[in-house]
Amino acid sequence: MKSIIIRPATKQDGKHFLSLIDALADYEKLARPDRAARRRLLRDAFGKRFDALIAIVNGEAVGYAIYFETYSSFLARPTLYLEDIFVLKEYRKQKIGLRLFRRCVAEARRRGCGRMEWVVLDWNKSAIRFYEKLGAKQMKEWVHFRLTP
């Protein structure tokens, strides 16, 4: 029987946390974080710039979620922004991603957030189906922009 634990990531999880971020970069066909970015990730995760959850199965780190707050001027409430949610391929379809997601939803409620938001790559059809099955709505009227200062 598998023991699945979802809990806040700690400094002691740093090596595993970075390994999971590397796995997500590989999955999304992106460059892995360089040495300086890895130092910033560890500093910011455990220095409270953002929050991170880690999924542990039988003692092995197999998934994570990163989230932080933004703010909605129209709702006059915080928004929980889900930056990453990822589970290693061999552990998918075991409801670990669902457990990570539900933990984020519970945290949004606990914080009094008016909503939760995230983005999904358009080619990631399994993620899109996952979120739609949970009742999430694709925001087609909003166009995503990015500027690198």
Tell me what you see in this structure.
With 149 residues, this protein is α+β, with helices and mostly antiparallel strands. Helix content is 34%, strand content 26%. It is built from 4 helices and 5 strands; from the N terminus they run βααβββαβα. A 5-stranded mixed β-sheet has the order 1-2-3-4-5, with helices on both faces. It is globular. The model has no long low-confidence stretch (mean pLDDT 95).
Summarize the structure.
The protein has 149 residues and is of the alpha+beta class.
Short key terms for the protein model shown above:
149 residues, alpha+beta, Aminopeptidase, five-stranded mixed β-sheet, globular
Q: Roughly how many Å is the radius of gyration?
A: 15 Å
Give, in order, the helices and strands.
EHHEEEHEH
Poorly predicted runs are none
What is the strand arrangement across the widest sheet?
Answer: 1-2-3-4-5
Protein structure class: alpha+beta
Number of strands: 5
Ends: how far apart? Answer: 49 Å
CATH architecture name: 3-Layer(aba) Sandwich
Query: What best-fitting shape do the alpha-carbon axes yield?
Result: globular
Number of helices: 4
Whole-number total of structural domains: 1
Largest sheet at a glance?
5 strands, mixed
CATH superfamily: Gcn5-related N-acetyltransferase (GNAT)
Tell me, rounded to a whole number, the average pLDDT. Answer: 95
**The CATH class:** Alpha Beta
As for the CATH topology, it is: Aminopeptidase
Helical residue percent band: 25-40%
Percentage beta strand: 25-35%
